[in-house]
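Q: For a teaching session next week I want to show students how multiple molecules come together into a single three-dimensional assembly. I've collected the sequence lines for a complex. Could you give me the predicted structure tokens for the whole thing so I can convert them for display?
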Amino acid sequence: MPELPEVETTRAGLAPHLTGRRVLAATLRRPDLRWPIAPEIAAELPGQRIDAVRRRAKYLLLDTAVGSALLHLGMSGSLRVLPGDTPVRAHDHVDLAIEGGHVLRFNDPRRFGCLLWQAADSVHPLLAGLGPEPLSDTFDGDYLFALSRGRSVAVKSFLMDQKVVVGVGNIYVAEALFAAGISPVREAGKVSRERYRGLADAVRAILGHAIARGGTTLRDFISPDGAPGYFEQELSVYGRGGAPCPTCGRVLKQAMVGQRATVWCGHCQR
DNA sequence: CGAGAGGCCTGAACGC
DNA sequence: TGCGTTCAGGCCTCTC
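A: Of course. Below is the structure for the complete assembly, covering every listed component.
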């Protein structure tokens, strides 16, 4: 399931193949993913040159002069650049034929992803109101502390709120909370400034490390060149409920927090 | 407004 | 072996 590092890895992998090249045609094999595919993908994108491949939160944007294709990989989506005659497989929902003979192919078994359109000089509603990027200068412990005052929600849910900070999904929030020694069920408004500083540092360090390593691979992610990532074995708590804590050896707790599977150490995280 | 629940979707894992 | 059930999860949307 692509989290921010996987999306960034995808962006970096796609950019050399797409930047400066024109989209020649769009092939839609079904009309919708999570939402209907934007009509502009077929009506306006063909003929346009891709000026840049950008990322905002977990969204990818293919910028052209008239607007940007806006993609989200959802949970099971992947994008690959393939020779134009590569046979189509199950769940290959969209092809963008790229100048030079290749095709950008969007595969998404669960169809939690989307392919929308952002007109030039506008901001798509899905991108409006998003919180800061976790690796930007505006994201730090002081920011989290200030925003969390009076919030009774679990700190884990708080950190996964896209209005608070983007791109911190269920895997990395578990790892960051473990690294910072904070219980995921603690009320967001009751975490001290000092501990939020540690948490922000942990988020930065873990995401930065994962990006440098090419992203975590669990079940569904395939990086653009087809090679799987290899970060999984480094996870401390995610997916390890019932196993020993890597620090103290006690059994890791598992429970649902905010309707999400959550694992933590009741001894090391308070 | 905040908090929590619901829903989308399919494949893998599991139980009988 | 085969089939039904459960779970997973990003994140928008609805309800209270």
